[in-house]
Design goal:
mainly alpha; 9 helices; 79% helix
Length: 270
């Protein structure tokens, strides 16, 4: 009975972690304009993504290590996927990424099981490669959701440069344009230039990139992928040490225990 309660707790923990990650996925889907505008709010949003991802990685690792037989781990993966969808409430086609999560999390589970079966004694270090796989799945899922949202938006609307980019370009042109203006007309010309330049430059930019508009989401996602992958690889490394502490605490509390298994080994002989 006590063992069943522990199993229920870890599956529920995985579900809750999935739910909170799903909430962040919903934010990605709905607030993609923060990325386009490079808003300062994107940093707080990035922190939310990191925290929810760490929570999900740790919960997934606990379930992959502790839940046996294997079908319990697979059930936990599916249940966490339901939690993600419940917190996310995705729209098509971004909802496809939910399936990507289920596949990636299942491969993660099987990889953990395979690695543990090859080890003589358990160590959290043996999870490092598997955690990299799971973290990569979360990056793929996040970037996929953002891609579908950006692609849908850019196909309906024109791609607009962030205001700060316009200001940088404007400052470069302003000095050259105003250098030959007579002093008596300087203020008026500068006022008109600053008023009209953003609109004219946006139109010129949109006209130039119009044939390549469908590639813009891919370019943005590729750049974000390059930013996220090193961060999530670092998170995987960090999670290994967090798991070490968690397993020690669980052992001290009696939630888990170390067991010795006798296995048959097949060898060749003469």
């Amino acid at each position: 009975m006590y063992k069943n309660l522990k199993i229920f707790f870890f599956i529920l923990l995985f579900f809750v972690a999935g739910y909170f990650f799903g909430r962040v996925c919903g934010e990605i889907e709905n607030k993609y304009k923060l990325v386009l505008n490079l808003s300062p709010q994107i940093f707080s949003f990035f922190i939310q993504l990191i925290i929810s991802s760490v929570f999900l990685i740790l919960a997934g690792a606990l379930n992959a290590v502790l839940l046996r037989p294997l079908f319990l781990g697979i059930f936990a993966v599916i249940f966490s996927g339901i939690g993600i969808l419940w917190g996310w409430r995705p729209e098509f086609p971004a909802g496809i990424m939910g399936g990507v999560y289920i596949c990636g999390a299942t491969f993660f589970l099987l990889d953990v099981v395979r690695n543990l079966e090859q080890k003589i004694s358990f160590s959290a270090e043996s999870l490092r490669a598997s955690l990299n796989l799971f973290s990569t799945t979360l990056v793929v899922m996040s970037c996929g959701i953002l891609y579908f949202s950006l692609n849908q938006y850019i196909n309906k609307e024109d791609f607009i440069l962030p205001p700060f980019v316009i200001k940088i370009v404007q400052s470069q042109f302003e000095e050259a344009v105003l250098s030959d203006v007579p002093p008596e007309k300087y203020k008026e010309v500068r006022r008109r230039f600053r008023k009209e330049f953003p609109t004219h430059f946006q139109r010129m930019f949109q006209k130039k990139i119009s044939p390549y508009k469908k590639y813009i989401p891919l370019g943005i996602i590729f750049f974000i992928w390059l930013l996220l992958m090193p961060v999530f690889q670092l998170l995987s490394w960090l999670c290994v040490y967090i798991l070490k502490v968690i397993f020690i605490v669980l052992n001290k509390l009696g939630v888990t225990k170390e067991v010795i298994e006798m296995r048959e080994i097949k060898r060749l002989s003469i």
